[in-house]
Amino acid sequence: MATITLRNMQFYAHHGCFDEERKVGTNFSVDVTFSYNATVAAETDNIADAVNYAEVFNIVKEQIAIPSHLIENVAMRIKKALLERFPSITDLTVTLYKINPPLGGSIERVAVEL
After folding, report:
1. 3-state secondary structure of 62
2. Cα separation, 12 vs 50, whole angstroms
3. Residue 24: is its pLDDT beyond 90?
4. Residue 98 annotated in active site
5. Model's pTM, two decimal places?
6. Integer CA distances (angstroms), 99 to 6, 7, 26, 51, 105, in order
7. Cα-atom radius of gyration of the chain, to the nearest Å?
8. Which of 61, 79, 80, 98 is catalytic?
């Protein structure tokens, strides 16, 4: 088993419960960690036998571009899309961070982990 982590993928997107958040947008970051049986990929040295993390990045990018009210919804869409594309993935964790959320005070980020 191999464990792969894509950490701190950064995006500008339009998620939030307030109209202004969805209109103006803000910064988000995403961490994705998953496991898969990498025995064949390790032996063949062929990307076709691996979970291509460039594709993982592109799936995250596509899903985060779809506006949502809740970051929970965005994280779940990312998770579902990854599992659909890569059924060999196990132990998938998606953590989505909303940077500097508008909560009326100083806060670095809020996160949801699925």
Report:
1. helix
2. 29
3. no
4. yes
5. 0.92
6. 18, 15, 7, 28, 13
7. 16
8. 98
Grade residue 55 by pLDDT with cuts at 50, 70 and 90: very high
**Cβ-Cβ contacts under 8 Å for 84 (sequence gap 6 or more):** none
> Residue 69, by phi and psi: left (phi above 0), alpha (psi -120 to 50) or beta?
alpha
9 in helix, strand or coil? Answer: strand
Q: How far is C-alpha 11 from the chain's CA centre?
A: 10
Q: Which two tokens stand for residue 20?
A: 């202004």
Question: How far is the C-alpha of 104 from the C-alpha of 96, rounded, in Å?
Answer: 21
Please give the residue that has the higher pLDDT: either 8 or 24: 8
SS3 call for 68: coil
Q: Can you read off the two tokens belonging to residue 37?
A: 């049986």
Rounded to whole angstroms, how far apart are CA atoms 54 and 52?
A: 5
